[in-house]
Predict the structure of GTP-binding protein YPT7.
Amino acid sequence: MSSKKKTILKVIILGDSGVGKTSLMHRYVNDKYSQQYKATIGADFLTKEINVDGDRTATMQVWDTAGQERFQSLGVAFYRGADCCVLVYDVTNTKSFENIKSWRDEFLVHANVSSPESFPFVILGNKIDIEETKKVISVKSAQDLAKSLGNIPLFLTSAKSSINVDPAFEEIARSALQQN
Ligand code: GDP
Ligand code: MG
């Protein structure tokens, strides 16, 4: 008889308002996309069961902000016990890219993780479905930033067109599992 071990992985998504955090979460968890999400959602997080290997399943809790990111005033419960922190920017928005490092620092200040040097982050450059001429962040500069922050895995995604969302969350799950 195999004894199934239950693991809960807490993943939090940070980034400027409007980069597509809520859309990415819905795309991953429900495989849905809607142009308009309310700024506030009912639940603190959405969950998805994932298969880790034959003997192990895990529940991923994806925590989204309800618009408070505009004021950088997320409660301590939001950060507590996170196993992976996803940092999102919008490839058509320079400011959101420049703020990636601040969001990472913000996380480290509040989350109180035991070893900040090895804590897993994943960076998502979202909205790559948008036409080339509107993209302002090159792949190279994103790679350079990811490298400079400690070789953080980087994925270019589209919640709208469902590009690279599953591979990104597979990496997120993998890195969160290493914390458990
Ligand atoms: P949040 O504030 O970071 O949670 O961002 P939302 O998920 O609410 O998305 C903000 C706006 O960007 C909405 O109008 C979305 O429809 C749009 N959006 C989100 N993801 C994408 C994407 O991958 N491509 C495009 N073109 N628009 C997106
Ligand atoms: Mg949102």
About this structure: The mean pLDDT is 89. The pocket of magnesium ion (ligand 2) is lined by residues 21-22, 64 (CB under 6 Å). Residues 165-177 form the longest helix (13 residues). The longest strand covers residues 5-15.
